Amino acid sequence: MGFYIQLWEIALLIIAAAIVVVAVFMVKSLKNFNTTISRINKLLEENENQLNNIIKNSEQAISNTADLTGTAKVGIQKVDNIISGAAQPKSMGATAANAIINYSKYGFAAISVISGIINYRRRKKRKYIK
What we know:
The protein is mainly α. The chain folds into two domains: about 10-85; about 90-130. It contains two helices and no strands. The protein has helices spanning about 5-85, 90-130. It is rod-shaped.
């Protein structure tokens, strides 16, 4: 009694073995793919929450910027008024300059008095130290 194997049976056996090997690798790959997809979904959910917070904070920043811009506009208008006041006729400029000189005299006098007091106290301390 002989046992004969034909060539197409061997080819069919090799193809079946290859399909089994490919199926095992496909299952492993699909499991890794599933894990990767679940991680990506988790990251997307976290990023969505962070984006919502960023959008809320950006609205506050924009409103703060608008307030600062309004304040800056008021300051610029005041500076423009000062510059236009300085550009008025010489008589007004001379009056302003005289006022500044008078006030600076008072400031100089105050600093002189304070300096005299400080020097007096230093001289007094030197007498006691010697």
